[in-house]
Amino acid sequence: MSNPMMKKASRWFLILLALLLAARILFGVFSRFLKPMPYSQTIQEGLLFLGILIVLAVLYTRPWVKNWEIQRMVQFAAGLVPAWWIAFWIFNSSRNLLPFPSQFFALQGVFQLCVMLAVLFSAVWLLAVLKELIFIQRGKFTSGCFLLLLTGLCVLILYEWIWGQKNIWQEGGWTYTYGMSFGRNAFFTLFVAVSICNGFRNKWIHYLRKRQKWEILFMTFASGVATFPLIERLPGEMRPLSVTVSVFVYGLLVFWMIYTAAAFLTVLLHLPTAGLMDRRMREMSSLQELSTAIGSVFDVRDLIRKTVGLALQVVDADFSWIELRKGPGFELGGSEGALLEDIRAIPEQAVVRLRDLALRSDSSVLIPHVSRDRETAVFRKWSRKAGALLAARLQYKNKNLGILYAASEKPFGFMDDHRGIFRAFANQAAMALENASLVEASLEKERYREELRLAHEAQMRLLPRSLPLVPGLQLQGLCLTANDIGGDFYDLIVPDQDRIDMVIGDVSGKGASAAFNMAELKGVIQGLARHFKEPRDIVLEINRFIRSQFEPDEFVTMIYATYHPSTRQMRFVRAGHTPVAWIRKDDLVWLESAGLGLGLAENEVVEKQLENQVCRLSPGDTLVFFTDGLIEARNRADEEFGEERLTELLNRNRGLGAADCLSRIEEEVAAFTQGTPRHDDITLVVLTLDENRSKEKAS
Predict the structure, then answer these.
(1) Which residues lie closer than 8 Å to 241 by C-beta, 6 or more apart?
(2) Full-model pTM
(3) Are 598 and 539 in contact (CB under 8 A)?
(4) In angstroms, rounded to a whole number, what is the distance separating the alpha carbons of residues 439 and 303?
(5) Rg of the chain over CA atoms, in angstroms?
(6) In the chain, how many H helices and how many E strands?
(7) Cα–Cα distance for residue pair 96/574, rounded to 1 Å
(8) Which of 317, 576, 616, 687 is the most exposed place for a label (fewest CB within 10 A)?
(9) CB under 8 Å, gap of 24 or more: what pairs does 307-312 form?
(10) Looking at 429-555, which runs of residues are DSSP E strands?
(11) Mind giving me the DSSP string for 649-690?
């Protein structure tokens, strides 16, 4: 039957039951005031029995108790016993305590009837709670045994109907026949046997902690003692009102007493191992908490603190510490239960021996008695008291991350079964540490990439945002860094109307250091360009600055050139930089003047090496300035682009403008490298004297 249909049917069952009980009350009231109806007692008992059958059917087919803790259910069931004693006291004393007038004597019966129905409802709830307890980790025959129990209750009622009364189909009351017959004994024995079968279905006891087991032991003992005299007294008080309810309550009390006795014996047998169960639960809780930390704690330091703290719970240790591998050795990562200074005070000989044992063992290492063990006897020299030790290496996928230790101050504080759980805990801890390290490295790498991206944007802003517009002159520049930031740079400066300074350079090194030096140097160059006219003088001042501000092993290669549009004259000096390609109409000339890299020597030496070079450009001529990253670009076969390929490329594209020439060089290098990461920064500046503009100016 589907769940919605089951709910609908159960709802109608409960409504019908309420109607039957209401009818039973009305029968009881009117039978006091009116002339007794034929067979009224029989009809009343039949209605009650039918109502009980409906309740038991609903109880068997669907749960009434949901999401209760085991201890709460037992407390509820045990709490019904004193409530029934109160009901017994009310039944027994109602005539004396409630002074009903004689004309309202029927009210006394109605009052007792209401109390009886309250006991009936509480009995049904007790049966519902017992069903939930019985069905915890239900077995193959659990449902059948419980159905036999319910059937036994109904059979006891029917037996009292048929053989337990005289004149059952006659008006005049149900006179009880005292004395136990063979049939009654047989049915009662079968019911007790079924009750015992259900009574020992109490697997819920296995999941209680030691303190809870002591509480359940006391409750079951007290409830069983209180239930025994209640079995004879309470049903006997109810029998004049209803044999059906009396027998039902009697059978349920018998079953409850048997179940409490079985629970008492089971708890009593489990008490010696209750501490072991508590320890297992702590171990599972610690492993679960560590598993949760794997996905929630990504800070290595926080995870170390959590690991050593949970290690104390897993094996019930007094203090714990962890060593992490760092390079060829180990360093202390954290501790719990003992100060780091105390752990560092352990004799080095003892630490080395215990560490070697842990690294050689496939499982965890157990030293039951530290002082008596030959390998760790030196621990006696330690100021802290250590009776037993556990050690396990933190290994994840053949990667040794460190060693986890736990110590007990009592000798034989750890047993052999602690080794397995400590090994499992160390494996979980290793996984958590590896994940946290990977996440931390990933975040660090991402943060570094973001910083490089910002630095790259800052460096690109240092390059000319727009090139100066000079009539008759085409200018193009390009800078491609090997990393996000680099040491290559170029600049175009216009100090006056008839002068354009062009500088291209390469700072030694790569990355942030070279980029920082480049940015610092670029600002100095712009200041010097407005105070000096000759490239030679500017370069010497730059050398003086580099010698005073840069590190001794840092240097700069550079070409500094000045172009005068009025004379078409280019004057430049080359300080250890790559040569300049001069592309003319019918040939290609490499301009290779002498010069020494800046920062390698004092000004006197550099000045002797520097050579001024002057060239007069003709219309259509092109000058290509570049850094060594262009000719050192490599393909997948690790071949360099080289000067020969560059010469062939420039000859093949002679006569192009500055933009087209720069574009062809970039495309050719990209096709050669085929996506291979750049080995070095590539910087290009192309200057072309516009032939058309020059002719217009001449005319």
Answers:
(1) 28, 109, 112, 113, 116
(2) 0.47
(3) yes
(4) 12
(5) 49
(6) 20, 17
(7) 126
(8) 616
(9) 307/334, 307/404, 307/429, 307/432, 307/433, 308/334, 308/335, 308/336, 308/404, 309/336, 310/286, 310/425, 311/286, 311/336, 311/404, 311/406, 311/422, 311/425, 311/429, 312/336, 312/337, 312/406
(10) 473-480, 488-496, 499-507
(11) HHHHTTT--HHHHHHHHHHHHHHHHTTPPPSS-EEEEEEEE-
- How do residues 426-467 score in pLDDT, each as one tens digit? 888 888 888 878 777 777 777 777 766 766 676 677 678 778
Instruction: Give the Cα-Cα-Cα angle 369, 371, 372 (nearest 5 degrees).
Output: 70
DSSP string, 131-200: HHHHTTT--TTHHHHHHHHHHHHHHHHHHHHHTSEESTTSSS--EE--S--HHHHHHHHHHHHHHHHHHT
State residue 584 phi and psi, 5-degree precision: -110, 180
Closest by CA to 362, choosing from 331, 400, 389, 321, is: 400
Q: What is the pLDDT of residues 49-103, one digit of tens each?
A: 887 888 788 778 876 666 566 667 777 777 777 877 777 777 666 555 444 443 3
- Cβ-based neighbours of 285, under 8 Å, separated by 6 or more: 313
DSSP state of 378: G
Taking the C-alpha atoms of residue 561 and residue 536, their distance in angstroms, rounded to an integer, is: 9
Percent helix, percent strand, percent coil in the chain, to nearest 5: 60, 15, 25
pLDDT, average across residues 657-668: 90
> In the numeric block, which tokens belong to residue 96?
């004396």
Question: What CA–CA distance (Å, rounded) separates 610 from 604?
Answer: 10
Highest mean pLDDT (candidates 135-139, 235-239, 355-359, 562-566): 562-566
Structural domains of the chain, with CATH? 4-271 (no CATH), 297-441 (3.30.450.40), 463-698 (3.60.40.10)
Chain length of the chain: 699
Sheet holding 499-507, edge to edge: 488-496, 499-507, 556-564, 569-575, 612-616
